[in-house]
Design a protein that fits this description.
single chain; 401 residues; alpha/beta; Rossmann fold; 6-stranded parallel beta sheet; 16 helices; 43% helix; globular
């Protein structure tokens, strides 16, 4: 498919030179992978002008197309800051670098990520360059109605201590993110739930473009079903991902010949739940880059998250042929009753019923697992992702003028 994409590039159909920016690395895991797969599509289509990122860990795309900020002069001074200030400062630094890059000319489309591009978007708007902004999760207001400035934001802005005011200036404010939404010509959203949070905020649907993620179906391939019912959860062990609810429900069910494997870094907020509900058939596997090994040894994937753009683990588990139990907040990979079960967010009883249903019905697990793999191959490979991305560019390119 990539060869087909490469042959499609027509001057009137796609921009000739795209500037892409992200405060991550090119090549790696998580957003690093998403970034690399996007740039592969741009490079194959011969429309990649330059990418600006904080490191380059791949060799497929020539270095002449990459501006790495790995050795930037602010790296060491910023590293002493607390996490939220450090990442905020990094994003502001990237934004300044990219806005200067846009000012050099030679680009006719700008692709950035929300929360790190307000200055560059202003520059793009001044120069009449169409812009696309990718949204990793939901609208900053998360579907809620909020005033222009909340009480905490007013207090932040009125902080009198010099040190605190300086630290606050490093943060990416909600107002800056909202301005990005206004300035961008097209917003790339990952799921229907994510789209709904933008519609609730009054963003017109014509400004939103559905861009679900992709997965490598060769790396993430089905394994052999285990002899016991082994449920796996993959992701950071935090409340936002519903791990505390899962632990309570699993403890309540007391299933025989069953095991729950938690794959991911343990955060402090989950430790009390592990102490209370971490029975013998709950195993902590820790963080690993080789998540495919755990999917292949599992019977089902359980991911009751409360807020995601479109969780990459749902793509990976489906590609490995696993039925899943998820929430709408986790994304759109799972279709209820087809390749898994979708339960209401935070509903322990519904989660318990779904787990029992898969536990008792091996035939259902097999049918849903097969449907999961089929849905990935037909809709969610990285080839599908790159084709959709280029179509998003076509959409915004046609509207220019």
């Amino acid at each position: 498919m990539l060869q087909e994409i490469a042959s499609e590039r027509v001057a009137s159909d796609l921009p000739a030179s795209v500037l892409y920016s992200i405060s991550a690395r090119i090549g790696g895991s998580g957003l690093d992978t998403d970034c690399f797969e996007s740039l592969r599509g741009l490079y194959k289509a011969n429309i990649l002008g330059r990418a600006v990122a904080f490191d380059n860990r791949q060799a497929e795309i020539p270095a002449s197309h990459i501006k790495s900020l790995r050795g930037h002069p602010m790296r060491l001074p910023l590293s002493v800051l607390r996490r939220k200030y450090f990442y905020g400062a990094k994003k502001h630094f990237l934004d300044r670098v990219v806005s200067r890059e846009l000012a050099t000319g030679g680009y006719d489309l700008f692709h950035a990520w929300s929360g790190e591009c307000v200055r560059a978007l202003r520059e793009a708007r001044r120069r009449g360059i169409p812009s696309v902004v990718e949204i990793p999760t939901w609208h900053r207001n998360k579907g809620k109605q909020k005033p222009a400035r909340t009480k905490s934001e007013v207090e932040r802005d009125e902080e009198e201590r010099i040190t605190r005011r300086w630290l606050n200036s490093l943060l990416v404010t909600r107002q800056q993110t909202l301005e990005e939404y206004e300035l961008a010509d097209l917003l790339l959203v990952l799921s229907q739930k994510a789209k709904e949070t933008f519609l609730a905020a009054g963003v017109p649907e014509s400004k939103l473009y559905d861009l679900p993620r992709g997965v490598d179906p060769v790396r993430f391939a089905p394994g052999t079903p285990p002899d016991i019912f082994r449920a796996v959860f993959v992701g950071a062990l935090i409340k936002r991902k519903g791990v505390h609810t899962l632990l309570e429900v699993w403890n309540r069910l007391k299933l025989k010949d069953a095991e729950l494997v938690l794959v991911g870094a343990v955060h402090e907020e989950i430790k009390p739940y592990l102490k209370e509900f971490g029975q013998e058939n709950v195993r902590l596997a820790g963080f690993t880059m080789e998540t495919q090994d755990h999917y292949r040894q599992a019977s089902a994937h359980i991911f009751p998250s409360t807020c995601e753009g479109s969780a990459k683990v749902t793509y990976e588990a489906a590609s490995c042929g696993l039925p899943q139990i998820t929430t709408r907040e986790s994304g759109d990979v799972v279709v209820d009753g087809l390749n898994g079960l979708v339960v209401p967010c935070g509903d322990g009883d519904a989660l318990a019923a779904a787990i029992e249903r898969l536990y008792k019905d091996a035939g259902l697990r097999e049918a849903m697992g097969a449907a999961a793999r089929k849905r990935i191959l037909e809709n969610f490979t990285w080839d599908h992702f790159r084709a959709r991305l280029l179509d998003a560019y076509r959409t915004v390119w046609k509207r220019r003028g």
